[in-house]
């Protein structure tokens, strides 16, 4: 068992909010007005926190009404045509007694302050208004504000900074070379930093010299009761040598939301956690935060590996195809983290707009995942991200907080484009989760409090709850449905060439009739395709006469026939693998740019029409060598021969394709048989 100390500062990002009675500074948002007292002693002052949140100071109600609820609507006056608003605990039950209590409530999904003209305490049973306040037309409610970007010495830079609320700053793509001895995040009064400034804890809540950052998006919380209204600048400051590494001005009078702490909302440390794969300590942790969910993935990954987690493509069972997942990893060289929104169109590598692709490859502006934090701690990759509960486009799937849903997960290698290759691990059984359940930690607890990771896991009253940290930095915008064109050809990512199976080469004049059967099959785990070629595979590969990507020795002047059984359906990339022979060691001709294609010669398996378009001829029914699920995984076989004996050939109905080829004096000494859609690698020696 691993040390179970890898909790990092999850409390910063994964905390559910509850009300406290602590007093807060006197900014509560945009003042709307006082509740008009009509019945049952209803009083209070109402503030707009943001587009969907109201805060009531000193709310009083005697609790004697038979069925009173918070209500809002867009009629001229309060009426039963309005809609209910859950109380500060998220409960839909009738209101209890309140005496000068500070209450923060959220409008239902799809409703904003633009949609309502009044807010009321309303009795449903008798249709009576107990007290109300009018919502001004075109109310300029608080919202996150984008300001300037950092640009200084020691490579200090960022994208425009977002003031999320009065105590929270979002610094997108922050960079700093980490070379100075005592650099800190720094704020203070006035336009320029000075030694009289105030330290701001880093994204993990620590006041330690800043390490190296490479375009990392971070969230910072101002210390104590300090707000953006108290400061005039923010930047990076070397405390030991009193040097300004770069700063920006904080405009005065920003119309931003108050922090939840200022509203009397404090975090609590109850989080959800489930173990996905114990051997690699793969865990998912989460908390629902308003209309979004914050998730953290943790695992012991090799360099160049990803971890993925998300919703099944089937609403009744765990199914990869059609799934909506987040693919996450940490670059162990730069320590930069990634979290990408993916749609799993099929069990194939992303090729053009088909396969397992980032949403942004399929439609512009459809990446609906926001990276919050990433780190390497004691060899474990930790990535924290946020996604909406509601599907934002046709590539997403709803998270239904109070319903059990099937999920899918996987771990595998990245290709050279930093996109997924075929997974090495995935859930083979149905896994069901209720994301809106009462918080429950079903993961091992840290063994000691002495390690930095364990200490960072303890919640702090200074940390903000996720609703505050995770508000969107911009209003929703219309989705652009045009397709994105990618010209870069992904080459296979390197893989270690160790412990490779020995695959016997096919010698000259073998077989005597010169007929080769080209079929698809598994890559053979770590001893197979990756170790043989030195490149990451997608999980499928050519089998020639039953051998995994063998070298084939041929002679010039002799005609060879390839019986191709790689699939016929171009609409299903996982079942369509046109065979061709080329001088290109990379393959994937289908998705090369016109410029890249001019550098490639194809000797067999394709033709050119009158318009100059190249189309494949090496297509036929699909035959697949299938592994036996009751046998050990491929990694456990010492030889290909032993592994091969566990495979079974399964073929679709239909006819194979035929590719004939006669190498001549103009044929290079080394050519390759490839897959037109995907990068592959195998050699023909002339």
UniProtKB/TrEMBL annotation:
It comes from Cryptotermes secundus. Residues 280-412 form the DOMON domain. Residues 466-475 have a biased composition (Polar residues). Residues 444-497 are annotated as: Disordered. Pfam families: DM13, DOMON. Residues 29-136, 145-251 form the DM13 domain. Residues 1-22 form the signal peptide. It comes from the Eukaryota. Keywords: Repeat, Signal. InterPro entries: DM13_domain (IPR019545), DOH_DOMON (IPR045266), DOMON_domain (IPR005018), Spindle_Org/Thrombomodulin (IPR052126). The lineage of its organism: Eukaryota, Metazoa, Ecdysozoa, Arthropoda, Hexapoda. This is Protein Skeletor.
